[in-house]
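We treat protein structure as text, and this decision shapes the records that our systems exchange. The tokens are whole numbers drawn from a learned vocabulary of local backbone shapes. One such record is reproduced below, unchanged from the form in which we store it:
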Amino acid sequence: MSIDEEKKKLFLDPEIDKVEVEKHIIKRIEELMPDSDHEEVVRAVEVEYEELLANAKVKIHLPTLVEKLAREDVRNHIPPGHHNE
């Protein structure tokens, strides 16, 4: 990834640029977990993103939190959105 792409990523709005941010998170998880199932990753990212976005007071950390929770979902095969149960 070029420096310009990295800078652009820093300025994405988690609410306005939701699709682009989700794509970046999915790509990152698949790079870190190459044996993961693509559909499982996509589903985990989408569910976690929606849940966190709906309850977020501060949105700047949203992509990092989504990535962490989605990776946990995929790694442990937990249904997305079940972290607080």
Observations:
- The CA atoms of residues 25 and 64 lie 8 Å apart.
- The chain has a mean pLDDT of 84.
- The radius of gyration is 13 Å.
- Residues 38-55 form the longest helix (18 residues).
